[in-house]
Amino acid sequence: MPIYEYRCPECSIFEVISPMSAASDQQSCPTCGGAARRKMSVPNLSKAGTSAFQLIDSSERSASEPQVVTGALPSRSRRKSQPYTTNPLHSKLPRP
Ligand SMILES: [Zn+2]
């Protein structure tokens, strides 16, 4: 439900939460009981869904909830020893 602001000429500004169908131009002041007129104010638009909000939200979430790795870890690059020769008879030779 939207929040409507009313300005009492005798007191101050007060807020009333009411459905849009029941919002009236005048409301009785809760302090003095006088007639208060509805005040035009800036709507409180949601910023959720903007790219800036998503960036801030993801960076704040990563501080306490780091992303879980679901895939396999990257394989280490294992270097196979390069054979000096492919002749099987050379394997019988003494090694240094
Ligand atoms: Zn008042």
Short description:
InterPro entries: Regulatory_FmdB_Zinc_ribbon. This is Zinc ribbon domain-containing protein. The chain is α+β, with helices and mostly antiparallel strands and 96 residues long.
What does it look like?
The chain has 96 residues and is of the alpha+beta class. The chain has a domain at 3-39. The chain has one helix and four strands, in the order E-E-E-E-H. It is rod-shaped.
N-C termini distance: 86 Å
Shape, per Cα inertia axes: rod-shaped
Helix/sheet category:
alpha+beta
Strand portion: 15-25%
Percent helix = 10-25%
Which stretches are poorly predicted, pLDDT < 50 over at least 5 residues? none
Major β-sheet annotation: 4 strands, antiparallel
Query: What's the Cα radius of gyration?
Result: 36 Å
Q: What compounds sit in this structure?
A: zinc ion
How are the strands of the largest sheet arranged?
Answer: 2-1-4-3
Protein name: Zinc ribbon domain-containing protein
Features:
alpha+beta, 4-stranded antiparallel sheet, 1 helix, Zinc ribbon domain-containing protein, Regulatory_FmdB_Zinc_ribbon
SSE arrangement:
Blueprint: E1 3-7, E2 13-17, E3 26-28, E4 35-39, H1 51-64
Antiparallel strand pairs: 1-2, 1-4, 3-4
